[in-house]
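Lab notebook, page 48
Experiment: co-folding of the full assembly
Goal: obtain a model of how the components sit together before planning crosslinking
Operator: M.T.
Materials (sequences as entered):
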Amino acid sequence: MENAIIELEGLTKFYGSLKAVDNLHLRINAGEVFGLLGPNGAGKTTTILMMLGLTEPSGGMARVCGFNATKDPISVKRKVGYMPDSVGFYDNMTAFENLSYIARLNGIPAHDVYHRVQEMMELVGLGAAMHKKTSAYSRGMKQRLGLADVLIRQPEVIILDEPTLGIDPTGVKEFLHLIRQLSRQQGITVLLSSHHLHQVQQVCDRVGIFVGGKLLAEGDIHQLSQHLFSEEAYLVTITVKDALSDTTAWESMLLQMEAVKKVTASGNTIEVSCTGNITPKLVRFLVEKGFDIMGVHQKEYGLEEIYQRYFDNNLTENVSHGKSSGLFQRSFFRKTAQ
Amino acid sequence: MESPVVYFKDLFSGRLHSKKAGSRGVSDAVSRQQPFVVMVRKEVADHIRSWRFIVLLILIVLTFAGAMYVSLSNLKAAVSNENDPDRLFLYLKLLTATDGSLPPFHIFMSFLGALLGISLGFDAINAERNNGTLIRLLAQPVYRDNLLLAKFVSALVVVAVLFLSLSLLMIGGGLIITGVRIEGAEFCRILSFVVLTVLYVGFWLSLAILLSVKFRQATTSALTAIGIWLFFTVFYRIVVNMIVKSFFPDPNFMAQEDILFYNNVILDLLRLAPSQLYTDATTTLLMPSVRSLGPLTMEQMAGAIPSPLSVRESILIVWPQVSGLLAATAVCFALAYFWFMRAEIRT
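Observation: model returned without errors.
Model output:
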């Protein structure tokens, strides 16, 4: 691929016997918005930490902006802005002081610090609360301050770990819009981890689905649904007036039509799975056969289904690993993908 | 958050930025600070503003004032004591003279110095970790050891300034009250006392930082540090005494050399405690007539005139103590460094 800015080659991380990240290969191109999608405990944060050299990988290599993240983390950190999932600030300092501390740490000249910080605070909509102590900030405000904190050093890559956690829906929309805009206009690469499908769907160019330390699939939404539902990308449900009797005759005729993969009939509904969008053809066929059609419903697969599908596939085997918070103790995922 | 891109006109394009940096490179280099300096500045500011430090400051200043008051009221008696070879060192007497109602300042410091070091360092790393600021800080282009070093240096700077100003105040006050000129040797001794005190606080500080790297909870690390401190100040002496009583032979049946040998062993055991090292060293520095920290035989004492030693000789006597303290500090710091450098940082 052209111009990969983040390259992960066989990245692996063990915590004791637990494999948190399993032989991960991933390339992210410059200027793209990539969504890392997965449930809690899938190894998203661990992967991100390894990209920043904050954790040593057990095997493999992470290369960011051309630098090896494990051996040369400082060069990587000069180019990458990282916002952790729970951003913390020094509570005894004001937001302005917090931000100017970071600005100075990044070597921004003293005479520029004031303007730069002010600019950033206004950009994320905190201009009015600039001189308040961060202990008085709400969760959403802290999240915005976190973004300002990431942007102040003019990074080439932004890594956001669960950035929309704890912001209200309007805030999320603005936030994602801002990220998207930055990426488009300034060519910043954005890596975004989340378990909120819809948000990821809104902004990301490409998505990687990450479960149990493995990248199960990557690509844009369209590619993903094709890859996953190659057999039945479309599901057409047709409701007819009278209960169906003798089905075998026309079922075999339906199956002979190209693109049709599966036909199930029960009561007065017929479900047809097919690889292409052939709804009109199906309707015409059934009308010709003399059926009274009451309703036609065509189902397309969104990210939700994709996500669900992966998790359902993995539900079969209960291996308890991952962050063992009570809710997820019955872990959904087995280590090896199907 | 409307049309934010306007603000970023050329902020994000690396090429433009580097071009600009090229033209103003010289002025930038002057006003741009090293991350380490920035961190130390911030940490020092944090210490000075914290209530914890203010409380300790008040405690130490009060102790100092109390010790000074007692020594000033006993100064006349101490200076006119003909049997004391140190009687002419007025300013050293100010630091050490006492009538028994209050221990002298340097004995106080062996307790308070430890407390000061512990309280400045016990939450150095784990508080940042728990607040979620550690990961944000380490995602900046700074070396990890810079953070550890900044924590250590900033606390040490604060402590050094505190003790230096206290002793200068004492010297100034002494000058005004007594009108006696200070000798160069006295000044050197007081200065080395300050350095030694800072070093002693530095040991407890590095121990506290070590514990703050090791333990996730600030309270755990504080309690552990205080536990170690209590062990060395209270229980260690008792434990050594117990060992001596049960394992060593009865001194009534021993020859002179054996008694000397065992005494030295006991002293060496006691000197494993940092507070003992500190007390030994300060006593020697502040009392110029102290010739040895162990027992001396009659042959060694024969022909010696009970006169004060020179500064250089006093320092030579305490050199083992100083290096012991330095080594202990270095070990704690190195261990903290070892644990911290490869630790995974996550909230």
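Interpretation: The first helix of chain A runs from residue 44 to 51.
Next step: discuss with group before ordering constructs.
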